[in-house]
Amino acid sequence: MKRIHTFNEIADEYDKHRPSYPDQLFADILAYSGIASDSSILEIGCGTGQATRGLVDLGYDHVTCVELGEHLAAFTQTKFRSYPNVSVIQAPFETWNSEKSGGFALAISGTAFHFVEPQELGYRKVYDLLDNDGSIALFWTVHVPTYDEVSNLIRESYRRHAQQLDDSKNPTLEQIIEKRSALTLANGLFKELEVKRYACHHTYTAEEYIALLNTNSRHRLIPEAIRHELFAEIRGAIEASGDIYHKPQAVVLFLAKRNEFES
């Protein structure tokens, strides 16, 4: 199973346990794009509608959501059933044919756009779907490694059971930003790039943290028996520290304008 398909199995759990995005992020998106409340917005990979909610709550509810997962799409459609202008389409973004080509004022994607394959096709398709003054707002939640006693114990568990998830080998936040910035500006499709960071801090009990990990695609691809052992050790490390785990994260937002001229 590919990572992109793992979320579709756990729509309810994903919606319950994944942290929401900062309110300031949506305010910054709207300030940058300058769109009207009735402008057409495209959302790529809406999942359970967490980012959709951030826009709708601010009065921007003309949203077309494209979601690959059947269960995720149904979940989000139900969540926003009282908003007639929110439309959820179950389809792969790469092959979806829009009736509004060139008609979207803003395209957003929250922790999902990296699943579009290839990335060059994704950016080109978004470019074609936006109007001349359109903007993109792509954002990701990024894991921030910490090296306190509990985190070090958890890291050792990963090294024993799932070395591919050893976070000491992850690219740095700066490296992630540099790579994504280059992708956004590649081929001259977009301009006026702005990158914004938001520091987030969450506190979890052992059960809450395991529930969160169970919604992560890379964890869900670990064979069940190994995942069970890994989670048992992580749970034990947190419980031994008073059943509280402090977890910093970052959300990184990439804003850009559609370029009038292609290079």
Secondary-structure map:
Blueprint lengths: L2 H4 L4 H7 L5 H11 L7 E4 L5 H7 L6 E5 L2 H10 L7 E4 L13 E7 L8 H11 E14 L5 H13 L11 H13 L4 E15 L1 H8 L3 H4 L3 H16 L5 E14 L5
Parallel strand pairs: 1-2, 1-4, 2-3, 4-5
Antiparallel strand pairs: 5-7, 6-7
Helix pairs in contact: 7-11, 9-11
Give a structural overview:
The chain has 263 residues and is α/β, with parallel strands linked by helices. It has a single domain, classed as Vaccinia Virus protein VP39 (Rossmann fold). The protein has eleven helices and seven strands. Strands 3-2-1-4-5-7-6 form a seven-stranded mixed sheet, sandwiched between helices. Helix 6 links the parallel strand 4 (104-110) and strand 5.
Q: What is the assembly state of the chains in this entry?
A: single chain
Basic shape: globular
Give the strand order, joined by hyphens, for the main sheet: 3-2-1-4-5-7-6
The number of helices is: 11
The helix-strand sequence is HHHEHEHEEHEHHEHHHE
Using the CA coordinates, give the radius of gyration: 19 Å
Q: In this structure, how is the largest beta sheet organized?
A: 7 strands, mixed
Helix fraction, binned, reads: 25-40%
Strand percentage lies at: 15-25%
Which fold does the CATH topology refer to? Rossmann fold
DSSP summary, beta strand count? 7
Poorly predicted runs: none
Judging by the overall fold, what is the CATH architecture?
A: 3-Layer(aba) Sandwich
Structural class: alpha/beta
Q: How many structural domains in the coordinates?
A: 1
By CATH's scheme, which homologous superfamily applies?
Answer: Vaccinia Virus protein VP39
State the CATH class: Alpha Beta
Mean pLDDT: 92
Give the N-terminus to C-terminus distance in angstroms.
38 Å
